Amino acid sequence: MKQLAEITRRWWGEVPIYLYALGCGGVVLYLWSRFDIPYEGAGSTTSFQIIYTVAIAWFFFDIIYRLIRERPARPLAWAKKRYLSAGSLAAVIASAPALAMCAILIPVFSSLKAMIPLFTPFDWDVTFIAWERTLLFGNDAWQVMQPILGYPLITAAIAVFYHLWVLLLYLGVTVVALSGSVNDDLRRRFFLSYALAWSLVGGLLATMLASVGPVFAEPILAIPDFAAQMEYLHWANQQVPVMTIPVQDTLLESYNTNDNGLGRGISAMPSMHVAVCVLFWLTAREVSKTAGRIFFWFMVLIWIGSVHLAYHYALDGLVSLAAIWGIWKLAPQVFKAWDALPLPWSQPALRTNTVPAE
């Protein structure tokens, strides 16, 4: 009974997250219907399978790590008590809705990202290029970085880290949902911010500021300004495999064939790579200083990589940083208002007109 009460309490505290997610789902269903876009259920299935697999892998990693660290005298009894107790199982059940939301969010976002050209043309690239050159005294951001980063081994290494980012979408959210180091207030703040990030930053802002980024500027918009950058990246790929090159080719092919599957769609401003990294950094620094430092430098690396690998203008990351910071500050206010509401199952205090005896 105690575990059921704990699950109910946590779910009730997270209701604003799921109400918002349902609202976004309604908007998405309308857009799919309005523009006759078929939804590919395979994307959601794949996303659920990845999170399920990652959760199991994290579970075994946690067991091995703690066995080595704590060295219990009776490992099986210790593992049973820690991982199969009613409290542990309740924590997993309580985390299920948040993880399900994350699994659905990624393929839905991919579909919406691919739909941007239906709403608006990609007409912001010229503006962002001009703004960036104004800030950098006539230079493009990649040119400023090139003397330091312009070596095939460095480029290939950055591309590997850029791909490791995807672990945040599956392993990262799983750890936030299940880790005992993340308290309930921080956890729900993260997941509401996560939903807001994908919908507002990756959806609304990406549509309002529609742009394709340096890598697609020439093939889609006939803007040749980044031909030298792409020439370098393809040359570097011939020396040492650069993981992002085949991905960029696939994205362009998907754009030309109207493929809106998982991981598809083209959008530069704002950078969701940077946005997600900012969110994990803000969360990690609430857990520990060490975790905060690690995720801060990972965020910086991804931001630099997004420019060096031609996915983004430097401004894309700056806008993402500002947007996520605002969302992070907003989320606690939402829960403060929600927590002020009376619990639906609470009993009001009885009031009587009984006069105390003299």
From TrEMBL:
Keyword Membrane in annotation: yes
Classification via Pfam families: PAP2_3 (PF14378)
Transmembrane is among the record's keywords: yes
Record-annotated Inositolphosphotransferase Aur1/Ipt1 domain positions: 128-328
Keywords: Membrane, Transmembrane, Transmembrane helix
Transmembrane spans: 12-32, 47-68, 89-109, 153-178, 190-212, 261-282, 294-314
Entry's Gene Ontology cellular component terms: membrane
Name of the molecule in the record: Inositolphosphotransferase Aur1/Ipt1 domain-containing protein
